[in-house]
Specification:
Layout: E1 2-6, H1 15-28, E2 31-36, H2 38-47, E3 55-59, H3 70-76, H4 81-90, E4 96-99, H5 103-114, E5 124-131, E6 134-139, H6 149-165, E7 173-177, H7 188-199, E8 203-208, E9 220-222, H8 225-250, H9 254-274, E10 282-285, E11 290-293, H10 300-315, H11 318-331
Parallel strand pairs: 1-2, 1-4, 2-3, 4-11, 6-9, 7-8, 7-9
Antiparallel strand pairs: 5-6, 5-10, 10-11
Length: about 325
């Protein structure tokens, strides 16, 4: 298997991307193509003393910065690491593409370069989150901020396929994120979406509220990209603030510091549960290929795990399973 990686994407690129790729190549037995500044990448590989043959470099003269307009930059920067990386997959020179760079640019390049799966109108970014009962999937968290009800139904279908094949959920429970649990809650858009999900073959339990995001009440949380992105950012901020508060209060007293010695193993497990890097990247579902979007602040562990996620999605043929479920929905 060959994973194409945007070496220039992310706040700490290309250093952490190269290092993460090295670890992944050694652990997951995959070939990795690092796309970007050839001189910088090769220098980092030499500095790391990597001697393996699983990592190669493909040159790209341009970089799409985080602040750039997605559509404009993809059209103008044809020699960027993102556009070239997607095209390598399109041309059959790679099985998946990973980037921790400009999310909008990755989504735009993927749609233009790879096209959409038959029956899917718009892509959705799906993110795995920890819950009290394991892990669940939220889709969409930013790719499509003004969707149609039919597109949210498609998100539910894609989320179901991903949960079955990657999170190993036998019959994923699907919920629609709304302002209340009652069927009549929300806008006409939400009511129409509810109706479509209820009539689908999905294991749909109805509306869920924000308080249910991490309770484990459902395995797939369906929402539009605007609401999903806000929920994601608030959750990240709350988790980080909670850790700061916890540390501040524990270290604020003598007995707290003594107690820390006994709490340390539990606190490490607590931190691991909330660590985004454990879950790797977020799949961009709906495009005709495997595309993984990494967190902009991705560290070495996050890059390594994002490559693992890409490998698993290719191996378990998630896109084929999505098409299969779409066929069943259409037949019904």
């Amino acid at each position: 298997m060959k994973i194409i990686v945007d070496a220039m994407g992310g706040d700490y690129a290309p250093g952490v991307v190269v290092e993460g790729a090295i670890v992944a190549a050694q652990e997951y037995n995959v070939n990795i193509v690092l796309v970007g500044d050839e001189v910088k990448i090769k220098s980092l590989l030499e500095k790391s003393k990597y001697k393996g043959e699983r990592i190669s470099v493909y040159p790209a003269q341009e970089v799409i910065e985080m602040s750039e307009s997605a559509a404009t930059s993809v059209r103008r920067k044809r020699n960027s690491s993102i556009v070239i990386g997607v095209n390598l997959v399109k041309e059959g020179n790679g099985d998946a593409f990973l980037s921790a760079g400009n999310t909008g640019a990755v989504a735009c390049a993927a749609v233009l370069g790879l096209g959409m799966l038959s029956g899917i109108e718009r892509p959705g970014i799906a993110i795995v989150t920890p819950t009290l009962k394991g892990a669940s999937l939220i889709i969409d968290v930013g790719a499509n901020i003004d969707p149609k009800p039919a597109q949210l139904l498609q998100y539910g279908i894609m989320g179901d396929a991903y949960c079955r094949n990657i999170l190993n959920k036998t019959n994923p429970i699907v919920g629609l994120l709304n302002i209340g649990e009652e069927e009549a809650k929300g806008t006409e858009f939400m009511k129409e979406t509810f109706d479509l999900l209820e009539k689908s073959p999905l294991n749909f339990i109805g509306n869920i509220e924000g308080k249910d995001l991490f309770s484990g009440k459902c395995d797939v949380v369906v929402c539009d990209g605007f609401v999903g992105n806000v929920a994601l950012k608030v959750s990240e901020s709350a988790a980080e603030t909670m850790q700061v508060f916890l540390k501040r209060h524990i270290l604020g007293s003598f007995w707290g510091k003594i107690g820390l010695l006994f709490l340390m193993p539990s606190l490490k497990r607590f931190k691991k549960d909330l660590d985004y890097s454990e879950y790797g990247g977020a799949p961009l579902l709906g495009v005709n290929g495997v595309v993984i979007i990494g967190h902009g602040r991705s560290n070495v562990k996050a890059i390594k795990n994002a490559i693992r996620v890409a490998k698993e999605e290719v191996e378990r043929q998630v896109n084929a399973k999505i098409l299969e479920t779409l066929g069943k929905t259409a037949a019904k």
